[in-house]
Amino acid sequence: MEDLSRRKMIKLGLLSSATALLVSCGENSKARIATPAEIEGPFYPLSGQADQDSDLTETAGYHGVADGEHIIVQGQILDTEGCFIENAMIDIWQANSKGRYHHPNDTNPAPLDPGFQGRAIMQSGKNGAFRFKTVMPGTYPVSETWIRPPHIHFKVSRKDYLTLTTQMYFPDEERNEADLLFSKKEASEQLLMTAESGDKEELAVYRYNIILERQS
Ligand SMILES: [Fe+2]
């Protein structure tokens, strides 16, 4: 890749310096470990939500925006050989800024937010890139002694690859360590499941690459 276009892509946030040289499945690619799976959890969205675009801070027909801190999450979908995966389906869902899911089984008394979309479905583009705008998810109680740290659920699928269901965590979150799911992972797995802080734009940016495994 020419220096100019690489610089431009880094500026656009589509490549981090660490992956800037990774442009194809050719000589610059390197083997990677697949992103660890995590449980789907009880709040996978029910069908019927029409608004599923990649801006979760606005909902169709509502005049206002979602409560809480608005953030950008972006990254790339790759395989374990380091090749970019385009046209992968990326299905995400999360709690709103108060820790409540838009799901009838969520008994958390925290309020629903009519400005928050709660779920999005998008496709990876050129070089496997994806990007969405959302809110920093709130924490929520699972039991009297277990409070989940902020996280975003991902389900990523593509023909010829194993579908990956996982959860993305945020860096420097004090609740990560005590979380009963996150703490069960090896340190190396935790690293792969935690976003990095990216260069701040108008909003805070979190970078999160997802590595899929080929179907054998
Ligand atoms: Fe969750």
From TrEMBL:
Record key words, sorted: Dioxygenase, Oxidoreductase
Keyword Oxidoreductase among UniProt keywords: yes
Every Intradiol ring-cleavage dioxygenases domain range: 73-101
Top-level taxonomic group: Bacteria
InterPro entries hit by this protein: 3_4-PCD, Intradiol_dOase_C, Intradiol_dOase_core, Intradiol_RC_Dioxygenase
One GO MF term attached to the UniProt entry: ferric iron binding
Pfam families in the cross-refs: Dioxygenase_C
Family (UniProt): Belongs to the intradiol ring-cleavage dioxygenase family.
Name of this protein: Protocatechuate 3,4-dioxygenase beta subunit
The organism of origin for this protein: Nitrosomonas cryotolerans ATCC 49181
